[in-house]
């Protein structure tokens, strides 16, 4: 009898010590940078300490593999509860019905913290994440590109280092002059024309600046216009002038970034974390680096609007806990530390207006964000964007830059491809 | 053999020889079922890893599953096969895949045959080279792909410099040339597969009796005549079968053109493996990709059958 009593006591004490609603939240994190991983581990530890009974299990899924992993998990099972996601594909997964709305999580966080998190999201991000009247993502980072340039190389080329290119035409001329005045192997600008995201990230500023739009009023391809042709001409002209690396048609953004750090380019359109890398590597010409806004077109100045949020997958059976983790990880002090470690601009406006984002080089990027727009501006986000940006627009740029097609042929083929995808 | 085992063996043998049929029945059934029991696990494994996925792909090819329209697969009948017939980009990739496949096998034979003839000689160089020849075969695609990219880089690539001197490459890497990119990656694919062909041909060469060459030499046959009349007929079967196997591997390729050029520039190196990959992960059309794979399977089965028939006839 005594033995039974002891066993019952042991079981009861175990049940009491284990929280009644113990849950595990699986989280796919896409950065492989050790500093980012360490910062995420700290956020998770802080969340677990303040949310008894919820365990967060982080799995690293590199950015380059995330689409394959997510689509595979979507079709065969095994999606996480929470993951990061590129802002441009939120609409795609929302259209599939794979995401869960975050309105309840937003409301619960606001009620608890006395905040208005939806009002604190950048206007551009709203277009990506607020679909069909509901919130589907909570932003971590927001990103735009600005023009890094080397003042010493500008002087060497006879250009005014205090007057960086204001327009795309000026950028093209400056890139040519800089290439001609630089030693062999140093180019005017690191600008890609390959089938890599770096191409669309840069080129979208050109076509939006020229007033071109991806989607016409009827929802079909809107690129078959003189504005888009001019934009394509000026962008690919930089490569055809020989003002960028001769292998630009097959190089990716990382190679160009590495090249700028190695002193191979006089200019590059890049995100703020490049400055963090410059400070880390301390090249001898570091004090000669300055940053200007992205060049404008004849119609406007449009910055690239990138970013990545956290999303909750509809297959999650721990939605409440997942929602709590998302809100914790994208707001507050722990999140601020993550953003500082990652060198990115936070997706929360109020945070981005505070230190350290008030120090060089961030204010220019924060200002640039006011002009940052999505690829399909002024249209609403569409589910097919993931397909269109990879396989259509970049292909047109590459074809013209390689001299395979003329502008008219490339634009005609581009619109055929876009309309084929939209009609599926 | 231990005494107990030996005793069991004789006992069984005696019983088999002396007992009537009815008494032997259980033993016969056991003996008859033994082969099935031995083959069974292999069949189960084969079913699990080959036949079931194949059946799933076949089933999937008849579904209408474009994730943006149908989050779950629904019966679509021949919808994917109809779409496939009118997909111009797919057919361009299809013909490109044949160029790639035949080119790869041609390079494999062209490189492997002289090497196998060289290694068939019993010299110290041949013995050393036999081990080194395997290097491309055992090298992972990712290492090999980036290694060749480095060699072809327009600024630091030694091979690019050489190609520039002979006038094949310009300022830019030939990987940016839509006409040359496929040719150069096909060559690299053949170079990677070459060791397998070398080993197979070497084995075939070793099996040719020396007497044949001695008799031919006495008859005054030249080296070329000996090669054409003795060597080639003796190894052509091996060449055909190994060429078929390597050709099938090449037809299903994905890695090398993806690592080296992502299927580009433009679609210059987009072969069917890359088209299928994009159909699933970029276009979100897994059922369409399954239909492509079914068509690939049927075509390859047909070609393999024809090649084997050709071999039998010869």
Name of the level-1 CATH class of the largest domain in chain B: Mainly Alpha
| Percentage of residues assigned to helices of chain A | 40-55%
Order of helices and strands of chain B: HHEEHHHHHHHHHHHH
CATH fold label of the largest domain in chain A: D-Maltodextrin-Binding Protein, domain 2
CATH H-level superfamily of the largest domain in chain B: MetI-like
Strand content of chain A: 5-15%
Residue windows where pLDDT falls under 50 for at least 5 positions of chain A: 15-19
CATH fold-type name of the largest domain in chain B? MetI-like fold
First-last Cα distance of chain B: 49 Å
Walkthrough of the structure:
The complex is a heterodimer of chains A (424) and B (314). Chain A has helices at 2-17, 34-50, 63-76, 90-96, 103-113, 123-129, 151-156, 168-181, 197-209, 226-240, 253-261, 273-281, 319-329, 332-342, 349-352, 362-369, 385-401, 407-423; strands at residues 23-29, 54-60, 82-84, 99-100, 130-131, 134-135, 138-143, 146-150, 187-190, 265-270, 289-292, 303-304, 306-313, 345-346, 372-373. By secondary structure, chain A is α/β, with parallel strands linked by helices. Chain A has 2 domains: 22-143 and 305-373, D-Maltodextrin-Binding Protein, domain 2 (3-Layer(aba) Sandwich), CATH 3.40.190; 146-304 and 384-423, D-Maltodextrin-Binding Protein, domain 2, CATH 3.40.190. In chain A, helix 2 links the parallel strand 1 and strand 2. The longest helix of chain A has 17 residues, at 34-50. In chain B, helix 2 (21-61) crosses helix 14, helix 4 (88-119) runs parallel beside helix 9 and helix 7 (141-151) packs parallel to helix 12. In chain B, strands 1-2 form a two-stranded antiparallel sheet. Chain B folds into 2 domains: 3-61, no CATH class; 87-313, MetI-like fold (Orthogonal Bundle). Chain B has 314 residues and is mainly alpha-helical. Chain B has helices at residues 3-18, 21-61, 79-85, 88-119, 124-132, 135-138, 141-151, 158-165, 178-206, 210-218, 223-251, 255-261, 272-281, 286-313; strands spanning 63-64, 74-75. Chain B is built from 14 helices and 2 strands; from the N terminus they run ααββαααααααααααα. The interface between A and B is medium-sized, with 31 and 28 residues.
């Amino acid at each position: 009898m005594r033995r039974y009593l002891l066993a019952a006591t042991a079981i009861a004490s175990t049940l009491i010590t284990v929280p009644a609603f113990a849950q595990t939240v699986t989280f796919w994190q896409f950065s492989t940078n050790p500093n980012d991983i360490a910062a995420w581990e700290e956020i998770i530890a802080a969340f677990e300490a303040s949310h008894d009974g919820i365990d967060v299990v982080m799995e690293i899924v590199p950015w380059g593999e995330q689409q394959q992993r997510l689509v595979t998990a979507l079709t065969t099972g095994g999606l996480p509860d929470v993951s990061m996601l590129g802002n441009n594909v939120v609409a795609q997964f929302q259209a599939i019905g794979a995401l869960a709305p975050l309105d309840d999580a937003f409301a619960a966080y606001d009620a608890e913290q006395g905040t208005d998190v939806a009002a604190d999201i950048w206007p551009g991000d709203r277009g990506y994440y607020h679909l069909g009247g509901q919130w589907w993502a909570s932003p971590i980072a927001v990103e735009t590109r600005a023009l890094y340039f080397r003042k010493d190389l500008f002087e060497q080329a006879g250009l005014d280092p205090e007057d960086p290119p204001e327009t795309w035409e000026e950028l093209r001329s400056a890139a040519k002059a800089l290439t001609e005045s630089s030693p062999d192997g140093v180019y005017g600008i690191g600008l890609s024309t390959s089938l890599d995201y770096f191409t669309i990230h840069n080129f979208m500023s050109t076509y939006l600046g020229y007033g071109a739009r991806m989607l016409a009023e009827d929802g079909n391809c809107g690129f078959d216009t003189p504005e888009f042709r001019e934009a394509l001409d000026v962008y690919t002209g930089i490569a055809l002038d020989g003002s960028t690396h001769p292998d630009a048609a097959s190089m990716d953004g990382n190679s160009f970034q590495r090249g700028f750090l190695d002193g191979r380019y006089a200019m590059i359109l890049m995100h703020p974390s490049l400055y963090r890398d410059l400070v880390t590597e301390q090249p001898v010409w570091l004090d000669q680096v300055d940053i200007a806004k992205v060049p404008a077109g004849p119609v406007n100045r449009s910055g690239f609007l990138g970013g990545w949020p956290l999303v909750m997958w509809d297959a999650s059976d721990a939605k409440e806990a997942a929602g709590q983790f998302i809100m914790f990880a994208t707001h507050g002090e722990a999140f601020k530390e993550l953003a500082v470690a990652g060198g990115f601009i936070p997706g929360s406006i109020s945070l981005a207006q505070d230190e350290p984002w008030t120090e060089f080089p961030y204010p220019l990027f924060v200002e640039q964000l006011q002009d940052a727009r999505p690829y399909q501006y002024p249209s609403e986000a569409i589910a097919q964007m993931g397909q269109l940006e990879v396989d259509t627009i970049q292909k047109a740029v590459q074809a013209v830059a390689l001299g395979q097609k003329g502008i008219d042929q490339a634009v005609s083929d581009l619109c055929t491809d876009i309309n084929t995808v939209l009609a599926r | 053999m231990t005494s107990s085992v030996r005793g069991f063996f004789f006992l069984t043998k005696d019983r088999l020889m002396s007992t009537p049929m009815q008494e032997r029945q259980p033993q016969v059934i056991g003996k008859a079922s033994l082969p099935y029991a031995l083959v069974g696990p292999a069949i189960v494994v084969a079913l699990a890893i080959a036949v079931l996925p194949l059946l799933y792909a076949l089933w999937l090819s008849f579904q209408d599953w474009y994730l943006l329209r149908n989050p779950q697969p629904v019966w679509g009948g021949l919808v994917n096969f109809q779409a496939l017939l009118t997909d111009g980009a797919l057919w361009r990739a299809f013909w490109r895949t044949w160029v790639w496949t035949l080119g790869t096998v041609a390079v494999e034979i062209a490189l492997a045959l002289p090497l196998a003839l060289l290694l068939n000689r019993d010299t110290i160089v041949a013995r050393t080279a036999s081990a080194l020849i395997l290097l491309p075969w055992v090298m992972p695609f990712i290492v090999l792909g980036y290694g060749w990219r480095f060699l072809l880089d327009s600024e630091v690539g030694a091979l690019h410099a050489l190609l520039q001197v002979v006038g094949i490459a310009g300022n830019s890497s030939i990987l940016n040339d839509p006409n040359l990119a496929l040719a150069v990656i096909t060559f690299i694919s053949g170079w990677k597969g070459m060791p397998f062909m070398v080993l197979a041909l070497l084995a075939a060469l070793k099996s040719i009796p020396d007497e044949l060459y001695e008799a031919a030499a006495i008859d005054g046959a030249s080296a070329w005549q000996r090669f054409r009349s003795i060597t080639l007929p003796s190894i052509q079967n091996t060449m055909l079968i190994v060429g078929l196997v390597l050709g099938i591997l090449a037809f299903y390729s994905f890695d090398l053109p993806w690592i080296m050029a992502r299927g580009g520039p433009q679609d210059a190196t987009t072969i069917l493996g890359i088209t299928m990959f994009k159909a699933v992960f970029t276009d979100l059309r897994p059922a369409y990709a399954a239909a492509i794979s079914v068509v690939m399977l049927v075509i390859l089965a047909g070609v393999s059958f024809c090649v084997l028939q050709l071999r039998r006839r010869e």
